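request received
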Amino acid sequence: MVAFIGMLMLGGISPIEAAQTLISGSLGSPRAISGSLKETTPLLLAGLGVFFALRAGLFNIGIEGQFLLGGFASALVALAVPGPVGLLLAMVAGVVAGALWALPAGWIRAYRNGHEVITTIMLNSVAIALTDFLVAGPVRAANQTGATTATIPTSGRLQALLNSPPWNVNSGLLLGLLLCAAMAWWMKRRVAGYELQAVGANASAAEFAGINVAKVRMNAMLVSGGIGGLGGAIQTLAFEGRFYQGFSPGYGFDSLGVALLAGSNALLVVPMSLLFGVLSKGGTSLLILGVPKGLTNLVAGLVILISATIRYRKAAADA
Amino acid sequence: MRGISKQFGRVQALDNVGLSVTSGSIHGVVGENGAGKSTLMKVLYGAYQADSGEVKVNGKAVNIRSSKEAIALGIGMVSQHYGIVPELSMLDNLILGAEPAMVLDKSAIRERAGKIAASIGLNYGNDIWDRDASAISASEAQRLEILKLLWREARIMILDEPTAMLSPKDGEALFGSLRALTTEGATVLLVTHRLPEIMEYCDHVTVLRGGKWITDVPVSETNPEQLSELIVGRTVSVSVRPDPVPSAAPALEVRNLSVARDRGTDAVQNASFALSPGELVGIAGVDGSGQAELFRALLGVTPTREGEVLWHGQPITSRSTSARIELGWRILPEDRLSEAIVSDWSLIDNSTLGLHRLAEFADGGKIRNQERAAFAQKAAEKFGTKHGGLDAAIGGLSGGNQQRFVAARMTESGPKFFMAFQPSRGLDIAATEDLYKAMQERCREGASGLVVSFDLDELMSHCHRVLVMFSGKVIVPPVDADRDLLGRLMVGGEA
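response:
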């Protein structure tokens, strides 16, 4: 925090003014709140994806790539098949694309013991390059100057949950919340959720308990990627209406922090994604004051660092 | 040490405990788990600070705040977990952290190392000092730990359960070394739960119970029965070896089973044996003779290279672990922390680890919470696990209490066949007896059990029959084999 204030002052900006701008820009008006919730939605979905893998002891850094592929695939399907049917198919396509993009990493981890962090980072680079290429060439909309697909008609998009300006909240957020509740329930009440978390907490004990560790890891990675892909699909179908170069400003990477901060409780993914959503929206307002976006990322980084310190101190005190 | 008290949270680990040790003697410290033995030693060693009380070394009051200060005063501890770097040679390990100078004079170091080894009756030449520490056995590692303390000029040595991992022969050698040290004026503090060691090798013994000092007597004035009463605080019935079970169609049969190691020779070589229904069979042997690999292979966690496992005549060699659990197989694994529990999880969550798919605890894919909580309650009560609520993390319990809980998970979940690896690890005399009684009870009901232990006496006094593992081979001695014969087989001797 001190570092943040110090840097603001170095930039000749009053910290108090900056804080005011950040808060009013993200929570100060119905419009601002709607904007924060819009930022929250992809973070919530991608955060749930990362969280799911994390509970199985896997660090799915590849969520960014899965998010991109999901967003891309859903745009193609929604453009090909119009109306509500197309919408449904587009979401399924997003899930499948995300899961497929996670599959190599899951397989290598489960059956060849290659670390998922390495493989998913590589898959991210490929995902970015691949979608950039496809959208610049093969699937580029005919009449567009930028590298983008055509725009999906409104009938093929996710509808607003609340649309009475200045309020505007999309149903994609509700899908995320429902998924979060379902995941929390599944982890607590289902045998499969129990097994997943056993593998994450102590893989060798899980083996002695008759759990097929490789299979659980494989499936966890697929589901995680599928959720990431769904996040991308919702981003396309709820907000963007198309897929283009630079589709994600790094939602996948921010969601790593979301999931880490949520710790062991799926329900905590909601407030954590909200926190990051607010910071992201408020950070955009700060740009007007001349505060670079990197500085708000720094705040997010500090939040992670501080909470990690607190957690490790607690762990050390318990030991 | 006088009037030592130490509190952890609300637990009074030590309450006004005194300990006085004559230099040049071997002094035993005994007590149940949680009696405060280890805490008292850690206070002496500087790992813990006492809340009150004083420590005097050679008549001088001292305040020991760290193990560094302890070693400067000549106090060193050999713990159950050896601090040896496998990548270094024996000699490098010896001097690690206590190098005599920035630039090492190897020949001087070798000379002094040799002298130190000789002082405990070891003839270590350069060939031994240059060996890789990764290649040494548990008993060699332990001796190296002692040598490390001597290198640091320790005069008071604390040993915590030093024979836990040793064969009887290595144990005897160890005490021979310790005796040699004391004749030169060194002092040994021995924390143990094995009363024969106290009776045979110690001069004096201090008994602790529940964090309190109970008594302090010369060993010559006491006997094992009296000591165990003092330790437990009540009379313990000593177990008698059960009569052999008449042989019948085997419940479990192992035929020519071999288990591969990562490289080199097989970890288990052509093992063949059978267990009758109702039979409790021990597997004796020095640590590392292939018991762990046999255990894992029988459970189906690691694949077998060759051979067959039959369950009531049905081959099950290729069945998964969960299929074996479904058959009624239950386990008590060797390494509690990495194989038996999830430390962050509650006792309730841990109670069904491995049993979680059984119909009793799962309704389709749904966890049956009530049945699970009831089972956790039953498992905690069986051997008197002391816990702070079934919802609290099991990692917060002492090792002994964790062991009680996972042991009950095995015995109370309707086993048809059970495998226990070092079941008494971390348990006191009374709890060990209770556990074996429960296992014998299951066998009377028709189950079969296999118990691996490095403690031959423990197996001989509780099992119907004792097999021996040595260097990957399973030896099936005659049912009436005596202690001498089994002990010889354990170290590769002839029948």
